[in-house]
Amino acid sequence: MSSTAVTELEISQPIPIPQAPKPPKKLKPARKQVKAGDVVKTETVQTGKEYNIWYNKWAGGDREDSYSNKTKSQSRCHIKRDSGLTRANTTGMKYICLFFSRGCCPYGWECEYRHTLPDSTDSMPDSSKDCFARDKFADYRDDMGGVGSFNRQNRTLYVGRIKETGTGQETEEVVARHFREWGTIERIRVLQYRSVAFVTYVSEFHAQFAKESMACQSLDNDEILNVRWATEDPNPVQKVAEKRRLEDMGQEAIKARMDPRIVDAMRAVRALEDGQEIPEEQEDEYADDDDDDDAQPDPKRRRIEDGPTASASPPPGQPEAPTNTSGLLNADTLEGLKYFAEIRKRHGAGVTQQRAPPPASTAGLGLAGYGSDDDD
User: Is 22 contained in some domain?
Assistant: First the structure.
């Protein structure tokens, strides 16, 4: 009675059905972040006589902190809300819209550039440009701003003018909350009581995007951030780790472009040099390659084998050509010499010619057995 009740209870329970993974969310057409004319362009306060468009400041005046004249940005990008499809998704353009990163692109889906985060797994068409198609330079600017240098892969941002209201751990959490929107963060270091933080991204493209997105923005205390490129980390441990990371990236890039059969062959040769045994799977693969080579012989070898000496045996008294391939001449060369010797013998059969007797010993000449000194 009890067993029957338990069986009926078990049968009446619903059987869990595995659900298929949800397909990736499709992007919608990108929205227009601002209307034309909403963002007012502010002029830099004149503190000198000449305006330098490269350094974005006045020259010849009083030297002062350029960020004291900076104003808070009037717009900010929101990735989840602003990302979408543009004309670049149909034309094949891979570069990102610079105004989209700053939150002030008025074109939306009509923009010629992408309105998404740069893909960290893909590379840009030109390594001398950043993800916004701006040309890099050999050296950094004096203030470590601008596009950056193509001589160094910089993934670390210097974030200054942070208003600290708590401990270093709380400040680090605030910085991580605002900067993780632009990509995966590798590490964050906060210099407490100095209002400075260093944010290192996994991808260089995400660091480029975050630098433009957070310039003149604020965290939680209405400050104006000073975001620029960080100088090289003097820590020797980090130098070794960065060098190893670049070497691994180079090896992966080379391996992705190489034929896997060449890689396996190189590994097999290295294993033989080290005295290791080749796995049976690789031996069978190489054996199949040898069978294919036998099925399709070399055309040069086919021409030699199709000659008169292919089926004819050497004349009596003439030694056969050695088949040892460890000498100076390979097997193809030896077969060719035999072929020309046979042609010479056939053409000279009807001509009477006095020849000198062959030498008693030809071991030291290195050409014995090729038919070049026969009386016939």
Answer: no
